[in-house]
Write a structure and sequence with these properties.
Blueprint lengths: L16 E6 L2 E8 L16 E6 L2 E7 L6 H15 L2
Antiparallel strand pairs: 1-2, 2-3, 3-4
């Protein structure tokens, strides 16, 4: 028989996605769970956040809260696009 390994506990975060259109351009946002600190790579811990996805790259936009209303999330993401994208 093979060796059984213990599975890592999975987080309760279920990624969410939002598509917003601003000035005729579509913007795709995805929520990701936070990551623990990685001392070997010098990466600090991060909390759950919304990211803008584009061409295989992601940019952190704002913190993610599962209790936040979808309309409020859309408005905050759109506000970020207006401030950031020219």
């Amino acid at each position: 028989m093979g060796v059984r390994t213990k599975r890592e506990p999975r987080g309760s975060h279920r990624p969410q996605q939002r598509q917003l259109v601003y000035r005729g351009r579509a913007f795709h946002f995805v929520s990701y769970d936070g990551q623990p600190e990685n001392l070997k790579k010098g990466v600090p811990a991060s909390g759950p956040a919304w990211y803008l996805m584009n061409s295989g790259t992601r940019w952190e936009v704002m913190p993610f809260s599962p209790l936040q209303d979808e309309i409020e999330v859309d408005q905050q993401l759109l506000d970020w696009v207006k401030r950031t994208i020219n």
